[in-house]
Every structure is written in structure tokens, then in C-alpha cells.
Amino acid sequence: MCQNKPVIEFSPEGVINKASPLFLSTMGYRADEIIGHHHRIFCPPSLVSSPEYSQFWQRLARGESFSGKYLRLAKGNRSVWLEASYIPVSDRRGRVIRVIKIAADISERVHSALEQEAVVNAINRSMAIITFNPEGIVLEANENFVNATGYKRDEIIGKHHRLFCAETLYK
């Protein structure tokens, strides 16, 4: 198995066959705690009970690959975000005999993005903000700006910023 990426191997039905040391470390498990268990041990209950989850494994068993960002649960229900590819491996007759998952732990990146989004949302809730293009045309105004100025959003979007300035400023 790959040494520099978290890798895990499943049966076509989703039962864990083996896992790389880095995968085990990422998820906080020992091999004997997961081998023989189903992939669902890494998933939130709401996902496991969904039709999409069943379809995911059915499609893998038919040979479809999947790549994306996935929220998974490590030991102790710790959230781990993985950017991963699920790759079905077929025998000479075309039957899927195993599924390999190659992953990267992107938890830190996802948490940073969520924190930045929270800061932006907090700013938007607490400050009047308007954005312009380089020519001074209004591109967006948040609710606080609209409330503070008494304009409606559709009255200012697409208009020049001189709308907010005294006429003497432009003479």
C-alpha cells in the first residue's frame, strides 16, 4: 500500500480488507479495530441511513469511481475531512474484486475555510458594507447598508457611487 497517503482497501460490498499505517493514524484506529468492519464505521449516521449511501456502494461494485471531499468520523467521533478517490479494481473478467480509497486529510484546510466564512458572516451581520467595481459602480450592498441608507437594494445595484455623494462634489 501507498506509504505517503492514507489508503484503505474494501470489498465491493464495503467491508474493510486492509488499511495503510497512515490511514490508521489519520483515523485513530489500529488495524484489528477496523478489519472486517463495514465502511459505515467512518460515516455519520445520517449518511449511512440515506439511499445515496447504498447507491454509492452499489455503483462502486459496478465499477464506477468517485472523487471528492468527504466528511468522515475517526475514532471517538472526531470529524475528519478527506479529499479522496474511491477506485474499483476489476479482475480479468471485469468483475470488481476490491475498492481502493486513496485519501488526503484536508481537515485543517476545511476548518480554516469555515472559520473565515464565520468571520465574513459576522462582519456582514455587524457592519454596513457596499462593494464597487473600479469604475465606481455598485456591485453589492448588504442588508445593514440598505437599512442605514434607506435605499432598496434594486435602487443602488448597478448605479454609480455618486448617488451617495453631494452634487457639489462632482461639479
From TrEMBL:
Annotated PAC domain ranges read: 64-118
**Which InterPro entries does the protein's record reference?**
Bact_Chemotaxis_MeTrfase, PAC, PAS, PAS-assoc_C, PAS-like_dom_sf, PAS_4
SMART domains per record: PAC
Q: What SUPFAM superfamilies would the database entry show?
A: PYP-like sensor domain (PAS domain)
Residues annotated as transmembrane: none
Q: Report the PROSITE patterns cross-referenced here.
A: PAC, PAS
All copies of domain PAS, residue ranges: 115-171
Domain of life assignment = Bacteria
Q: Identify the Pfam families for this entry.
A: PAS_4, PAS_9
Any idea what this protein is called? Answer: PAS domain S-box protein
The record lists the organism as Enterobacter hormaechei
Task: Recite the lineage of the species.
Answer: Bacteria, Pseudomonadati, Pseudomonadota, Gammaproteobacteria, Enterobacterales
